[in-house]
Every structure is written in structure tokens, then in C-alpha cells.
Amino acid sequence: MVETTNLLEALNQPVGMDSSDPPFYETYKALFDKAAIEESRPTKREQVMFASSLEECEPPLIDLSQLDESRDCKSEIARASREWGFFQVVNHGISREILERMRREQVKVFRQPFEKKINEVKFLNFSSGSYRWGTPAATCLKQLSWSEAFHVPLADISGSDGCGSLSSTMEQFAGTVSDLANKLAEILAEDLGHKSDYFKENCLANTCYLRMNRYPPCPMFPNSNVFGLMPHTDSDFLTILYQDDVGGLQLVRDGQWFAVKPNPDALIVNIGDLFQAWSNGVYKSVEHRVVTNPRVERFSSAYFLCPFHDTVIKSCGQPPVYRNFSFREYRQQVQDDVQKLGQKVGLPRFLL
After folding, report:
1. What region, left, alpha or beta, does residue 92 occupy, with left being phi > 0 and alpha being psi -120 to 50 degrees?
2. 101, 103, 289, 298: which is the annotated catalytic residue?
């Protein structure tokens, strides 16, 4: 719900969008109109839920320069994964040059006209559906994500030569981040007493994904219940995020939402649903979201460590908390829930 006067005023302000921006207003006009005539004021819970300014938190910051020599470093990674589900890493081995080049190429591709981006098959040789924006199944503003993204299978990257050096930059970025993701996954497996090649065998380059995100300014925020990315957990083993210094990422800790303070020198790592299930609930896949900014756009790049679609996720502890399921089955259930309910349900569907 929203306060009527504020939203109506916001809707009447100049939009300031150009040909590169998705047509959020036009496409979701019915949702904005419905919200604008809503007579009730936001509940206290909604006021907190959509607060633009929350108390900041800094997830554990871990220096990986001593990773091979120090057992303490590995223990810090495991502890953060148990207690936070999120942590930051510095001295991670990915050069500043690669990160900055990735950001430049990302900005360049999002600056392309919207009509060109939606034809990404011809534009970039990505698979159909790689370019995404908004929330097609949204039935209210709370389910709308004010963002656009290229969600790209790594198998697509080598052929994406339609936009200058984007392909080679994505390939280099994904290669270095992939090494880091596998190393972190192995550390977490070892902490649970599993010294195996599980992740090397099941999470290959062609099973993982790279997602480039852009969050355009949303002039109506915080007058409307619009997220940059609605609250969710990640449907993978691990996510590694490279973000700019604009801020907007928020996470749940001890039942409360906190704003993650941006650290330009760190990468964000978070546990995904598959790792929570595989660890039998030891590691936490934590709900998080992105809030919009009324004036400034935000960029981020995320690497998702995923297995083959037929990989069966089995809880490694006893008694198991979750039933066995394949990654394919999990993805299909998430898609079905989003289509029917407007939001993800996730792991609760697979509890024993």
C-alpha cells in the first residue's frame, strides 16, 4: 500500500528516462494506478519493509591472502556461512583491472537502446531470454523489480561477440571468479568433513551463470512499494557479487533488515539454497533484496555457482532436513511458484 497523494505526485513528475531504459511505467501502469487510488496508508510492517534508510551492517570481512597458510581463514569463512550466510572477501585474486573492465563493458551494453537489448540473440548471440527486466508475473508493486539484467549461461559467453570486447571481458571475469567460487565451496565442504571433488565434478564452467544487473533510478521511491530486486534467496550453491559504491543491497539478520555498507575493495559472497540443503541447514541461504534509488543508477555483476540440471542435491547430515531433489526439479518449482504466486517459495517446498 502507498500514500495516495505522494504516489500521484511522483507519477506526475518528469520521468527522465531515455531509449535505453525499459518501459516500466507503460508496462506496469495498471499496478501503479491501483496503488495510487489505494485509500489505506502503509502498515507499520510495510513502512519498515520499504524503508529507504536502514541501519547499516558490514558482513564479516575476510582477507584471503593467508588462505593457503592459515587455518583461521578457513574457519572464518565457515563461521560466516553458518552465522550470516554472507561475507566479504579482499585479496581475492581478481585484479582491479579485470573488475574495472567488466564494469565499463557492462555500462556500455546497458546503454544500448532498449529495442536492441530485447533482441539479444541477434545483438549479442546470447540465448533467448537472457535479457530480463521487471517482473512479468507481478500482480502488485511489491512483486515488481525495477531493474534489468543479462542472465547469461557461461556456455553462451564465448559466442557473444556482438558488442566489442564484452565477450572476452566476461570470459576473463567469469574464469577468475569461478576459481574463487570453487575454492570457497571446497573449504565449506571440508569444514563439514567432506573432502571430495563434488563441486569440481558437478559445477563446471558450462553449468554456471553470470548476471549483469542495472538498477535504473526510480523517481517514485520511497513513495511507492517498488524494489530494485524483490526479497529472495539465491537458487545456487554460492553467489559472488561485484557491486559499485551506490549501495542498495540489504539482507536479513536476526529477523531484521539491514543495509549492507558498500566496500569498493571487497567482493560479496553469499550462500545459496543448494548449499543450505546440501549442508543439511548448517550454512544459511539468507533472504536479501535491492532497494531502488530515486536519482542514481546502480550496477552489479553476479557469478552463480550451479551444478548440472540433473545433479541430485542430498543433505549430507543426519537426519536429513530436506528430501533429495535435482537442480532441474528445484528450478522448475521456483518458476512455477513465481508464475502462480508472484514470488519464490524455495526450500520450504522440499522439507521432509
Report:
1. alpha
2. 298
